Automatic annotation (TrEMBL):
<dbReference type="GO" id="GO:0006355">
    <property type="term" value="P:regulation of DNA-templated transcription"/>
</dbReference>
<protein>
    <submittedName>
        <fullName>Uncharacterized protein</fullName>
    </submittedName>
</protein>
<dbReference type="InterPro" id="IPR010985">
    <property type="entry name" value="Ribbon_hlx_hlx"/>
</dbReference>
Length: 64
């Protein structure tokens, strides 16, 4: 089965739109790609922050 790319509109500030446009121009990449990769990177960051916090909590627990 082939994946279907669906696009939608999201609201961002004018400043954010300008920054994405500048990044796209500087890298030769599509604005959609810049946003997709930024969201993926942010999700990865949140995952690892949560993982590290949980690990620290377990490591600090003398019962484990």
């Amino acid at each position: 089965m082939q994946a279907v790319n669906v696009s939608t509109t999201i609201r961002v500030s004018d400043a954010t739109r300008q920054r994405v446009a500048e990044l796209a121009a500087a890298t030769g990449r599509r604005m959609q790609t810049i946003v997709d990769e930024a969201v993926t990177a942010y999700a990865r960051t949140l995952f690892w922050e949560s993982f590290e916090a949980s690990y620290a909590q377990i490591a600090d627990d003398p019962e484990r």
